[in-house]
Amino acid sequence: MRRDTAAGVQGQAARSLPEHVAIIMDGNGRWARGRGMARHAGHRAGAKTVRKIVEYCGQRGIHALTLFAFSSENWRRPRTEVRVLMELFLSTLDRESERLHRNNVRLRFMGAREDFPRRLQQRLLEAERLTRDNSGLQLNIAASYGGRWDISSAARRLAEAVQAGALRPEEITPERLGQEVCLAELPEPDLFIRTGGERRISNFMLWQLAYTELYFTPVLWPDFTPADLDEAFSDFAGRERRFGQTSEQVEGRESGRA
Ligand code: IPE
Ligand code: IPE
Ligand code: MG
């Protein structure tokens, strides 16, 4: 792996470090199985990786980090695994909230939170309230989240506004709908990372990832390190983002339609 010099890192930060990184943290189960352990041991190890990666993103000055922790489809897993995941979610929150707050991290949760046990819902609200004025890393945890849920919830809110006479159907545009989906207040993810080797989106941020750069790594989430993240950043730095335009336009050698 290429090791940047201090000056190199600075140059990269100014030029091409992503502002918003979204990660599907996959591979906990396989990590555990490979060690002859139960799947929940993989989830515990994965929670430690979350801590390290969040800390590192703070150090690198990343503006926003969105982590897929539990999908709307993960409820279909065996009941004991779901229970372990809920307990881990709750205990991690209890242990980490204060520390994140001290580090100026703002926490947000996105997903169908009414699906969670009451006690957990309460903790999510408390953590959001505690950290809401923090201006450091914007940390978003997607839990009981699905991209289709996100878009359909947004559509329903717009339909309600139309029904109430506050919005006309012709005012429903990509821009307007984009204001209703999760994390509308943040820039869309620049870089998407999926660990664990699968090359699919699995119903993560379908709307917000429209022009995100995709990066897949075989590294299992519990094994994922800041050096692996740096490798993804380096790969990202080499991409040309065209947003539908030509290379010449992006490089400023040719302008767009008048
Ligand atoms: C990701 O790891 C964590 C969750 C989905 C909650 P997995 O549990 O999906 O791990 P694999 O894909 O089975 O290895
Ligand atoms: C996606 O991983 C969800 C999370 C990592 C939270 P899955 O392991 O659930 O995805 P599939 O089932 O392999 O598509
Ligand atoms: Mg998986």
UniProtKB/TrEMBL annotation:
The record's free-text note on cofactor binding: Binds 2 magnesium ions per subunit.
Q: Which Pfam family, any one, appears in the UniProt record?
A: Prenyltransf
EC number(s) per entry: 2.5.1.31
Name the domain of life. Bacteria
Which cofactors go with this protein? Mg(2+)
Protein residues bound to Mg(2+): D26, E213
**Any one cellular-component term (Gene Ontology):** cytosol
* Active site per UniProt: D26, N74 (proton acceptor)
InterPro entries registered for this protein in UniProt: UPP_synth-like, UPP_synth-like_CS, UPP_synth-like_sf
Q: What keywords sit in the KW lines?
A: Cell shape, Cell wall biogenesis/degradation, Magnesium, Metal-binding, Peptidoglycan synthesis, Transferase
- UniProt entry tagged with the keyword Hydrolase: no
Where, in this chain's numbering, is substrate bound?
27-31, 39, 43, 71-73, 75, 77, 194, 200-202
One GO term in the molecular function aspect is: magnesium ion binding
Q: Which GO terms describe its biological process?
A: cell wall organization; peptidoglycan biosynthetic process; polyprenol biosynthetic process; regulation of cell shape
Record's catalysed reaction(s):
8 isopentenyl diphosphate + (2E,6E)-farnesyl diphosphate = di-trans,octa-cis-undecaprenyl diphosphate + 8 diphosphate
Q: What does this protein do?
A: Catalyzes the sequential condensation of isopentenyl diphosphate (IPP) with (2E,6E)-farnesyl diphosphate (E,E-FPP) to yield (2Z,6Z,10Z,14Z,18Z,22Z,26Z,30Z,34E,38E)-undecaprenyl diphosphate (di-trans,octa-cis-UPP). UPP is the precursor of glycosyl carrier lipid in the biosynthesis of bacterial cell wall polysaccharide components such as peptidoglycan and lipopolysaccharide.
Quaternary organization: Homodimer.
Query: What family name appears in the similarity comment?
Result: Belongs to the UPP synthase family.
Q: What is this protein called?
A: Ditrans,polycis-undecaprenyl-diphosphate synthase ((2E,6E)-farnesyl-diphosphate specific)
Organismal lineage = Bacteria, Pseudomonadati, Pseudomonadota, Gammaproteobacteria, Chromatiales
